[in-house]
Amino acid sequence: MNSLPTAKAGDDAGIAAIADLLICPGCSSSLAIGSTSIDCKKCGASYPLNDGIALLAIRGTSETWGKPQANEQSTSYQAEYQRVDRAAAYNLSYRQRLLKRQSTQREFQLIKQHVERVGRSRIILDLPCGGSRLTPAFAYAAELVIEADIAHGQLLFGRAESSVATPRVWMTASAFHIPLRDNGVDGTICVRLSHHLPTAAERERLLTELLRVSRRFVIMTFFDHYSLKNLLRRLRGPFNRLPPKMTMTTARVAEFAREHGARLIAAPPLSRIGSGHRYALIAKDQGIV
Ligand SMILES: C[S@@+](CC[C@H](N)C(=O)[O-])C[C@H]1O[C@@H](n2cnc3c(N)ncnc32)[C@H](O)[C@@H]1O
Ligand SMILES: [Zn+2]
Description:
- The chain has 7 helices and 11 strands.
- By secondary structure, it is of the alpha/beta class.
- An 11-stranded mixed β-sheet has the order 1-2-3-4-7-6-5-8-9-11-10.
- Strand 3 (46-50) and strand 4 form a beta hairpin.
- Helix 2 (84-96) packs across helix 3 (98-118) and helix 2 (84-96) crosses helix 4 (152-161).
- 42% of the residues are buried.
- The site of zinc ion has 8 residues, from loops.
């Protein structure tokens, strides 16, 4: 796909729908929404509005939050789906390949199971939304969905190719600098990002930001260090020279949640054999059990 897909206007709520939640990703101050840009009242940063998509992403990793730069970071991964043809290839592979289609079905089940446990939401943030592959699994349980990804190409693809009945707002955003107020959304869904983050500093920054903006819950996937898939990869490592996976343990996710006043409620595996991903439900709201 070389030309840009055009937006389907149907469910587009427009960025003004979340005007009172937006903050500057650079300095956390209030933002003023104009006709072509969104401007920070304090630091003067100006973020373009491109065909209804707010471009609020700050690129970069630990150097952008004052931690030393590590040798290996996720910087290049942030650039991977900026182009819509790259985003299209990623998303179409999930539609066309049988194993990926089956995996998506199971992911729908796991998300629905968690969403039904937390009950109805006013606003759910989907970050990173990619091409909105998973949105139908939770959009029915919210009044408004915020679709956000660091890659503009993913948003263009998702806006053109997906549709749900729930109104949506579209913005580029880094999960390391989410441009939303503390507790601004009811919950956040963060699927298939943490295992692309090579350092513990990045993974923990991600979880800190998700918990900061979410008032009640976070659903986040991580690649389980003790999964069969990772065990086999570690055993084969010396022979096939594949790099180790970027993993977390369930115990570390639970401990991290506790350190932030939240609880790990459940972390079912996507598959015991074929995948190492787990779908963690982390609750801040004491009413979620
Ligand atoms: C494997 S895709 C998953 C997308 C979607 N959740 C899904 O499961 O289909 C990971 C996405 O993370 C985005 N991404 C990479 N680094 C990011 C960051 N720091 N903040 C937000 N999104 C990021 C990429 O552009 C990509 O769309
Ligand atoms: Zn600012």
